[in-house]
Design a protein that fits this description.
CATH architecture of one domain: 2-Layer Sandwich
Shape: globular
Strand content: 15-25%
Helix content: 25-40%
GO molecular function, one term: kinase activity
InterPro entries: ATPase_NBD (IPR043129), Carb_kinase_FGGY (IPR000577), Carb_kinase_FGGY_CS (IPR018483), FGGY_C (IPR018485), FGGY_Carb_Kinase (IPR050406), FGGY_N (IPR018484)
Largest sheet: 7 strands, mixed
Structural class: alpha+beta
Keywords: Kinase, Transferase
Number of helices: 16
Protein name: Carbohydrate kinase, FGGY
Distance between the termini: 64 Å
CATH superfamily of one domain: ATPase, nucleotide binding domain
CATH topology of one domain: Nucleotidyltransferase, domain 5
Strand order of the largest sheet: 17-18-16-15-21-22-23
CATH class of one domain: Alpha Beta
Family: Belongs to the FGGY kinase family.
Amino acid sequence: MKAYLLCFHSFFLSFEIFSHLFNYSKLYFTGLDIGTTSTKAVVFDISGRVIAQKSINYQMIHSHPDWSEQNPDEIYNAVKECLDYLGKRSLIQYVSFSSAMHSIMAVDETGTPLTNLILWADNRAIQIANELKTSEIGQEIYHRTGTPIHPFSFLCKILWLKEHEPSIFKQTHQFIGIKEYVWFKLFGHYEIDYSLASATGMMNISNLEWDTMALALVGISANKFPTIVSPTFSRTMANKRFFMGAADGPLANLGTGAISPNKMALTIGTSGAVRVCSTTPYTDSQMRTFNYLLTDNQHIIGGATNNGAVILQWLKEQLLQTDESIEKLIENAEKVPMGADRLLFLPYLLGERAPIWNAEARGIFFGLSINHSQAHLTRAVLEGLILNIYSVGKILMEQNPITEICASGGFAKSSFWLQLVADIFQKKVVVSENVESSAWGAVILALQGLELEPKNAIQNTAKVFLPDESKATFYTELHQKFERIYLKMKDEF
């Protein structure tokens, strides 16, 4: 019977694909990207051309100092609204998921949330993380799981719940992230892909199972977590196929083509990250970088920063309190000399992940004078964000001969910001026509699940930014100063 069912499934899949091959223009693939500030559904054809998109925004909740949460049902409703919008236009055939990483919530046996969604930016577990990351067991768990010890991880957040919310800890049937919650609401199964499982700090990257040492430390069994499945795993609902997909960071590598060792993906949205792809796992002796899986033989190695474009939004709304658009602020910043007339910005408003892994770090404007204007502040923020992420990229470039940076995310719409990347990294920066790289990466996984290849894939390099070699020495020295200031100040946070 099992063999018969496998044969039938194979026949059905072949028929499903064959029935569409006569008219590729009628194939629609949706990358459903569940982000920190919005959910976006992007519909592509098989060549990667965007057919339609729908986006729904939502807010964070900061009910206590260091807490960053969201209402999981608000996000689920945003997903449903996006799907309903596309469904009414007959644009849904295949859907594949992308999701922000490091969000966790507890649910009971009925799937009802016992907590809000606790986000990557939540730092309530600072003390637990600080104690654990200097211990031998903490360091061993890092090398087993590839996830640095930090308040963002499931490991530290669950330990916090166990200590501070013991009744919730005892009631919890499953510890899950937002994509797993949405998947359960749609299909009634708790399942998680390799990348999001490895990002929890609870999965062993060698055997792709929940790590026994991490489980023992937390004091729970593996059945408290979803079943780990391939990113090409799928389920069917109303004659539509939904693929598991993966985390937004690894998918940005796939979507931008940064899969070969000499290419590095750089993404800046609300937060930011730089990542390279490797066929073998790699952990850092100083625990500065992560190692997440995309597929069973593709490891995404890199580091993420808490402080991305959200800092620019803070500058506009909270510090400058201006009605000028961010685009106008950037335009004005272009007129300021590089280095912002000796004004330097350390962007640690939300604490920091890579490479310093210091949740207690805070932002600094260093060198303020009476002559500095809004434009100087803006330029310093833009440079500071790239100098910070260069600290991570420099570590990766020591291990890999990087020749090209594939940029994506909202910041990739700014030519000035992209040129800053080229000048600070001293590498060629390439931007694709469609900057929705995580959504397209999710669709590529769906195509792999269907045993299809993108047909006549668009050669969609939109812009190339070459480094100005005359600026190399200046930015090298500025970056060294950036790191020196942090080292001098870190004990004062």
